[in-house]
DNA sequence: ATCATAGTTAGCCACATGGCTAAGTATGAT
DNA sequence: ATCATACTTAGCCATGTGGCTAACTATGAT
């Protein structure tokens, strides 16, 4: 249960679809209305709408409606938690390498006796 | 179709589950057999096995069997494509932000409420 | 040879996901 | 007032996902 119990799960899930990543990349060039976003995907509007909803619920994009046009824009800081998690993982791994290193050193010193 | 048509999709999908991220974090401390990995999750063995399969198919871990024990270990460089993608996006997104498009800012402020 | 341990495989279940069509709503143009 | 545009909602379908139990295999210990 509570499959997406954190921002991180929502974010990673949103990013796991190629269509959604393509939408993000397109939006990086600037805001765009839904129909314009849908065009290059080859998908129907409702399908694209749902992809956009996933992106919005993950906080990766923000939308606003002006007249009958809904404009979508990227939320640049939304990727921060992903970066943080990646950095943490790297740090843990490196500290493990350090420990392994000192362990090896210890053994080598032991043998040097 | 071809939902996970790239490494990136496989990776993001693998990372989108809290249990799998927890497994990775545990494995960052060093290799471990399946049963030991399963213990803290509160999940049954077959369930954990499948999570491990997803991680392995994404290339995030590697496993090997010694006797009846299967040992799982992290593949640290597997996260590289994710980092790369993230860096690319950040570069695009930030250069976009540098232009300070007032329309984007307006939407972001709207959503911040 | 027997038993315990550590996976492994098969299969069931409820729900989520990604695609669609069809029909509805709201707004700009004529 | 009418019509086209731009979503929006509802709902169908096939497949995927994450959990489980039960039963099986393989290996180490006695």
UniProtKB/TrEMBL annotation, chains A, B:
Residues 1-94 form the HTH arsR-type domain. GO terms for molecular function: DNA-binding transcription factor activity. It comes from the Bacteria. InterPro entries: ArsR-like_HTH, HTH_ArsR_DNA-bd_dom, WH-like_DNA-bd_sf, WH_DNA-bd_sf. PANTHER family: SLL0088 PROTEIN, TRANSCRIPTIONAL REGULATORY PROTEIN. This is ArsR family transcriptional regulator.
């Amino acid at each position: 249960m509570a499959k997406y119990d954190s921002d991180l799960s929502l974010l990673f899930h949103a990013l796991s679809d190629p269509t959604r990543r393509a939408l993000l990349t397109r939006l990086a060039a600037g805001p765009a209305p839904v129909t314009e976003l849908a065009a290059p995907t080859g998908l129907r509007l409702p399908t694209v709408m749902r992809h956009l909803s996933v992106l919005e619920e993950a906080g990766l994009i923000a939308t606003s409606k002006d007249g009958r046009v809904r404009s979508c824009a990227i939320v640049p800081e939304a990727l921060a938690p992903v970066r943080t998690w990646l950095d943490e993982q790297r740090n843990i791994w490196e500290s493990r390498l350090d420990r392994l290193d000192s362990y090896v050193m210890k053994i080598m010193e032991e043998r040097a006796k």
